[in-house]
Structures are given as C-alpha cells and as structure tokens.
Hints:
With 93 residues, this protein is an alpha+beta fold.
Amino acid sequence: MAVHREEGRFVVRIELSAEFGEDYEGDDDGNAWLEAWRARVQPRLVRAVFAELRSEPGFSAIPVTRGKNPEDEVEVAVTFHGRHAGAVVRRDG
C-alpha cells in the first residue's frame, strides 16, 4: 500500500481538420476523411503510445476512458512502480 502519492500531467492534443476545393459539395460522404483517420491512423498511434510507455522499466500504462468516447479521446493512466523517483534511470535513445 502506497504511503505517499505524487501526480503529474502531460497532454498531447491532436486537432483534426480537412480542407476542400471550391467543388466541395458538403459532407454527404459522412466525413470520410475523419473515418479514414479513425480506422487507419488512430489505432496505430494509440498502439505506438502504449508500446513506448510500457517499454520504460518501472512504468505501467493502462487506458482509462472515464466514460468518454474512445473515438474522440484516449486517456492513459501511467504509474511508476518504485520506491522513489530517484530510482528512475535515464535512458537516451
């Protein structure tokens, strides 16, 4: 059982937009560009983030949606498992 807890925060926000030419006729395609992002890019990005977080010794990472739509937001709980922050070893690369 933890005696003391410290917390921090790091936010990466990706704002998505699409631009179209004058011949654009509206979003009748159901925002296909956004669906393509969600189907192809977003899963790879999330996997890469988790892979990097979990590759660091002493840290664990789990998704915590807290009731939010995972298509719009992914929240990650990262926990350091060690006696104190000084135990973190610098890893360059």
